[in-house]
Design goal:
Helices cover 30% and strands 23% of the residues. With 806 residues, the protein is of the alpha+beta class. It folds into three domains: 423 residues, Endonuclease/exonuclease/phosphatase (Deoxyribonuclease I, Chain A, 4-Layer Sandwich); 111 residues, Sandwich (Immunoglobulin-like); 163 residues, Phosphatidylinositol 3-kinase, Chain A.
């Protein structure tokens, strides 16, 4: 397939053929491990493995999966989503012979199956072309002047030629003061200023050389207070662009204002769907959790109302969930390729002093800084940008500069900030081999305290041949009709009882049921809620898939997964819940199958309260869950067995023995395998092996953070600002109001951390860092306390750590 056809001049870098590799290899800091299941594996194929024309070695997914053993993995999250309900039971129709049919569900499942078959054969009717996309981002610090942006937007044109799509994002195009945030009275004016600058740069005579095919057309512009995103396409490609829509999400003040958030544009380019998201996330070096939360909010709340026709086209291109959901909107992940960029505000970890970061940045010694880059760390741990990829950082940190210069800001009258790669560009692709990064650079424009960042990508774009797709569609429909014209569906389940055995805290255990179509007609199945219920199963269980369609002889697996989180653990410990449930599998135009689920909870000290833990001297695994058996074994009217939970004492004592001199204590993560074994030792009373002290500290923080009720309740939060004059009185009242057990635990933990600080010269911990750790694990993050109260609490913790006596 020629890259220069009547639709436009497709960009292939000069000197690079379609089958050559690209010079840039992406760095995926989200590489999965056995203990990081949130980040799924991807085939990081280079451009040399891309397929051109209509032939491909892609095979349809196997329909027969034989695995029967439970799969156990460490839980990473509990979204509470137990699956899609395809249709409401209100649409169920019962026939005279007792059969039940839901026409809405049947139509959705049937169409989803058809599109699934067509997608599996998409290479029979799809041509693949290569194009180039430029993505640029710049926090302009409310500055700007009439000048060409060529050194940023067109820096690599001499090497790769003009891109097919240009996407540019700005942050802080206006001052983020209260008036601008509330009224947006200057945003439109400033956005037009920058759009005009981009247009004049892209379409300058120097860049177009008088060739109309090198001209760019504006597709869409979206702004949100200081955020701006704009997309331009080469004029010859404009007729092949459709379904262009915009969205914006504010996550700033009160979680909704636009001083922070995201502005997005999505479109269909030929037959590939593209989404571009420009964001400005939470600031401040220590606020990693805030940035992670902002990302999640923008990702989950961004929605494009594209209409029924466009949704059906998205489904044909592979987003089957949209059909089952029955909406006329798509989210960020419902696209072939997503580019996410902006001032993400991730900094270099606080463990490296500001002066050291400045020194390394100025000398262009980047390795240590990259290893301690917060975004790299968070992605590696699966806490943010799951499945996204980013190229290697080969340029110096882009923030913070003295405006108008190329010097990092170090003026005496200005606050000294550590340089950081705040400005980033990442991407997410359904087919990872369809995106290859050609470069990842920064510009030296210097009007702002940030440097602009840019990247050019070589992307594989789908171009569907409609006549061939219709032929495939007819073949699929012919096959389907042969079976739909027979009588009733019949399926067999290899089992209807699932016994999960012992299930442990913070783990996921999966068992499959194989369902086989043993009849002569197509069988459609779905899980339905029980009468008077709105969910398919209890909240501690997830099921996938919740619906499906099988042709005769075809089989598939339904996976049932149990996961125990804090909420479930507390309900099990208080006898408000049991690991038992019954699920209903409905065969459309057929019968219902009842699947019973059972399991036993291997009791754990994690997720319990300190009030209950101090009652038992026995290992918690030996304490019965049944309240009657528990009452027979223990005298609850007697005095508590221990002043603090024995589990807490054991882990603190182990950390003390293994060395408080260890560098980066409480900062370096432990081994996931060791963390699991340590938890088992605490629950069973087994002796500790020679575990790493970092694994021990991780378990300590996890134990305190996951108590069913926090050590410091909301009622103890200071209600007034704390200062040097009143902090002693606050501290005294704080301790006096604390319940006895919580008081003992608090004093014990503070005393331990004081001992830790005696070794600060070697372990490199500081009172301020320990205070933050105390606040994170002793104070519940879900209590909704205002920031100033939490700041007062941190100041109070610092006082307890540094004072001579409590």
């Amino acid at each position: 397939m020629t890259m220069n056809d009547q639709q436009g001049n497709w960009a292939v870098p000069p000197g690079t053929t379609a089958n050559q590799g690209v010079p840039y290899q992406q760095t995926n800091y989200g590489t999965p491990t056995n203990n990081n299941p949130r980040v799924f594996s991807r085939n990081d194929s280079s451009a040399s493995n891309l397929s051109y024309g209509t032939n491909s070695n892609n095979a349809a997914p196997s329909m027969g999966i034989q695995a029967q053993q439970p799969r156990v993995s460490v839980r990473s999250s509990n979204s509470g989503n137990v699956g899609i309900i395809v249709a409401n039971r209100a649409g169920d129709e019962e026939t005279e012979d007792g059969r039940i049919r839901n026409r809405e569900a049947a139509a959705k499942i049937r169409d989803a199956w058809i599109y699934k078959q067509i997608r599996a054969r998409q290479d029979e009717f799809t041509q693949y072309k290569q194009g180039r996309i430029f993505v640029g981002t710049w926090n302009v610090n409310a500055k700007g002047k009439d000048e060409s942006l060529s050194s940023w937007l067109c820096a690599d044109w001499h090497q790769h030629g003009p891109p097919d799509i240009v996407v540019v994002g700005f942050q802080e195009m206006v001052d983020l003061n209260a008036v601008n945030v509330a009224v947006e009275n200057k945003s439109q004016q400033r956005s037009q200023f920058w759009v005009d600058r981009i247009k004049s740069t892209l379409n300058s005579r120097e860049n177009t050389m008088g060739d109309p095919t090198r001209m760019y057309t504006e597709l869409a512009v979206k702004y949100l207070v200081g955020l701006l995103i704009c997309v331009f396409v080469k004029a010859p490609h404009k007729p092949r662009v459709k379904h262009v829509h915009t969205s914006s999400v504010g996550v700033g003040v009160m979680g909704v204002m636009g001083n922070k958030g995201g502005a997005s544009i999505r479109l269909q380019f030929y037959d590939s769907t593209l989404c571009f998201v420009c964001t400005h996330l939470a600031a401040h070096r220590e606020n990693v959790a805030g940035r992670n939360a902002d990302f999640a909010n923008v990702f989950n709340k961004t929605s494009f109302e594209i209409g029924d026709e466009a949704v059906k086209e998205v489904i044909k291109l592979g987003s089957l969930n949209q059909w089952a959901a029955g909406t006329n909107s798509v989210g960020v992940s419902d696209h072939d390729i997503v580019f996410w960029f902006g001032d993400l505000n991730y900094r270099v970890d606080e463990s490296i002093p500001t002066e050291r970061v400045l020194e390394l940045s100025e000398k262009n010694l980047l390795e240590e800084l990259i290893e301690n880059d917060q975004l790299n760390i968070e992605r590696a741990n699966g806490r943010v940008f799951q499945d996204f990829e980013e190229g290697p950082l080969t340029f110096r940190p882009t923030y913070k500069y003295q405006p108008g210069t190329d010097l990092y800001e170090q003026r005496p009258d200005k606050k000294l900030r550590a340089p950081a790669w705040c400005d980033r560009i990442l991407w997410l692709a359904q087919e990872p081999g369809h995106v290859a990064q050609l470069n990842y650079l920064r510009s030296e424009l210097n009007i702002s305290d940030h440097k602009p960042v840019m990247s050019t990508f070589l992307v594989t774009i789908k171009d569907v041949i409609l006549s061939r797709r219709e032929e495939v569609y007819k073949e699929v429909m012919k096959l389907l009709n042969e079976f739909e014209n027979a009588s009733l569906p019949m399926v067999s389940l290899d089992r209807v009882k699932l016994d999960f055995g012992e299930v442990r805290y913070d783990q996921r255990v999966t068992l499959p049921i194989t369902i086989t179509n043993t009849g002569q007609v197509v069988a459609q199945f779905r899980l339905v809620p029980k009468l008077d219920e709105n969910t398919l199963c209890k909240q501690w269980m997830t099921v996938t898939p919740t619906y499906g369609m099988l042709i005769p002889g075809e089989q598939t697996e339904i996976e049932f997964t149990i996961g125990i989180d804090n909420l479930t653990s507390n309900a099990l410990n208080t006898n408000k819940e049991v690991l038992e449930d019954v699920l209903i599998l409905r065969l459309e135009n057929g019968r219902d199958y009842y699947i019973s689920v059972s399991g036993s909870y291997a009791r754990s000290c994690f997720g319990m309260s300190v009030e209950e833990l101090v009652l038992y001297s026995d290992p918690i695994r030996n304490v019965p869950l049944d309240p009657i058996l528990r009452a027979e074994k223990y005298d609850f009217n007697a005095k508590a067995a221990m002043c603090v939970p024995k589990e807490l004492w054991r882990i603190v004592d182990a950390i003390y023995e293994r060395g408080l001199d260890e560098r980066d204590l409480f900062s370096t993560p432990g081994s996931p395998d060791e963390v699991y074994q340590i938890r088992e030792c605490l629950d069973t009373g087994a002796s500790f092996e020679n575990f790493s002290v970092h694994s021990m500290t991780e378990v300590l923080i996890s134990f305190l953070s996951n108590l069913s009720t926090p050590i410091v309740s909301a009622s103890l939060f200071p209600t007034l600002d704390i200062d040097a004059q009143n902090i002693q009185a606050f501290a005294r009242k704080f301790l006096e109001d604390m319940p006895p057990i919580q008081y003992n635990v608090f004093i014990y933990i503070v005393s331990f951390f004081r001992e830790v600080l005696l070794h600060r010269q070697r372990n490199k911990l500081s009172p301020a860092k320990i205070a933050r750790i105390c606040c994170s694990c002793l104070v519940s993050s879900s209590q909704g306390s205002p920031d100033e109260s939490k700041g007062n609490m941190q100041q109070l913790m610092l006082h307890f750590l540094e004072t001579n006596s409590i």
